[in-house]
């Protein structure tokens, strides 16, 4: 399997995991959990598991001061803040509106790569990005009264997540072992959420066994598997292309809500899924065509 197909597979599976787990999270809310509790436990619960994996695979625990700095910057400042602001925005605007605005992050990622790192997007990647972004607009909730604080938080979460993807691509974290990155990020993010929660005290440390089990499943699927797979996808694709394939997340979330929670699958949502998948498909064929062209040129020169 070539690097593009491998990176595409890793990123899509990561997006599917990120997209399905909010359904499980909504189930725990009925058992006494909340956004702060889920965010805290989904980072903390995965740490012992990852420590065991690192010991079994003999992955060294040592990290340099430079790597610690990037773990704090990319993990806490970008990834943990993204989760916190997105969940907080749900208190002011509808979940659908907040999530839709959050999925502006592929555009943010492309802009950061273009402005800061001077990367050339390419015509087909730009078209795929625009198509996927337009598909997200189909998920906007109709008739909901907007609150500017909620909108600001949602857009800010898109900015920080775009910076997270870029940071994973352009920092030393890209070459670090994915399990080590997930372990240290899980611990530092959990501590950051715990500190932020001190004045508000919204974390519920004691939950029913079923809620704790579902939270553990969420932790493994997101803070371990999805984070590690996304890092490996970025290693093969780069942040800009990986961000486009992350668009599978809202599609999987809508489909999971339809299948598991029996939510209504409206024509508007269906069209949004089709447009997003169309943009991603365009991206796939464009990259595969470019790869074949490069391989043909290499063979002719050889």
Describe this structure in words.
By secondary structure, the protein is mostly helical. It is 77% helix and 0% strand. The chain contains 13 helices and no strands. It has helices at residues 3-29, 35-44, 46-56, 65-89, 95-102, 105-115, 123-137, 148-170, 178-197, 209-237, 239-245, 248-260, 267-301. Helix 1 packs across helix 12, helix 2 packs across helix 10 (209-237) and helix 7 (123-137) runs antiparallel to helix 13. The longest helix has 35 residues, at 267-301. The radius of gyration is 19 Å and the shape is globular. The two termini are 23 Å apart. The relative contact order is 0.20. The mean pLDDT is 83.
Reported for the largest beta sheet, the result is: none
Low-confidence stretches: none
Oligomer: single chain
Structural class: mainly alpha
Cα separation of the termini: 23 Å
Mean pLDDT rating: 83
Q: Fraction of residues in helices? A: over 70%
Detail the topology: elements first, then pairings.
Elements: H1 3-29, H2 35-44, H3 46-56, H4 65-89, H5 95-102, H6 105-115, H7 123-137, H8 148-170, H9 178-197, H10 209-237, H11 239-245, H12 248-260, H13 267-301
Helix pairs in contact: 1-10, 1-12, 2-9, 2-10, 3-9, 4-8, 4-9, 5-8, 6-8, 6-11, 7-13, 8-11, 9-10, 10-11, 12-13
Name the descriptors.
mainly alpha; 302 residues; single chain
């Amino acid at each position: 399997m070539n690097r593009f197909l491998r990176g595409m597979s890793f990123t899509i599976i990561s997006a599917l995991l990120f997209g399905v787990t909010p359904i499980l999270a909504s189930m725990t809310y009925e058992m006494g959990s909340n956004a702060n509790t889920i965010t805290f436990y989904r980072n903390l619960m995965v740490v012992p598991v990852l420590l065991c994996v690192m010991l079994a695979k003999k992955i060294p625990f040592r990290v340099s001061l430079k790597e610690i700095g990037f773990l704090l910057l990319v993990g806490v400042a970008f990834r943990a803040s993204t989760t916190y602001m997105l969940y907080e925005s749900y208190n002011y605007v509808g979940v659908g509106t907040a999530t839709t605005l959050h999925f502006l992050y592929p555009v943010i990622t492309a802009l950061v790569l273009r402005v800061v790192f001077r990367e050339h997007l390419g015509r087909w990647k730009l078209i795929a990005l625009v198509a996927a972004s337009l598909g997200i607009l189909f998920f906007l909730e109709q008739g909901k009264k907007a609150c500017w604080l909620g909108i600001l938080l949602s857009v800010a979460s898109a900015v920080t997540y775009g910076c997270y993807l870029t940071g994973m691509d352009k920092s030393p974290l890209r070459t670090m072992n994915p399990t080590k990155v997930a372990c240290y990020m899980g611990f530092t993010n959990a501590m950051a959420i715990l500190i932020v929660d001190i004045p508000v005290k919204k974390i519920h440390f004691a939950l029913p066994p079923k809620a704790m089990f579902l939270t553990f499943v969420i932790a493994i699927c997101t803070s371990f598997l999805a984070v590690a797979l996304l890092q490996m996808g970025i290693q093969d694709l780069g942040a800009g292309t990986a961000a486009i394939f992350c668009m599978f997340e809202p599609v999987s979330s809508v489909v999971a809500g339809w299948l598991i929670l029996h939510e209504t699958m409206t024509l508007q949502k269906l069209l949004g899924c089709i447009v997003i998948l169309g943009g991603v498909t365009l991206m796939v064929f464009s990259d595969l065509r470019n790869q074949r062209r490069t391989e043909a040129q290499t063979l002719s020169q050889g």
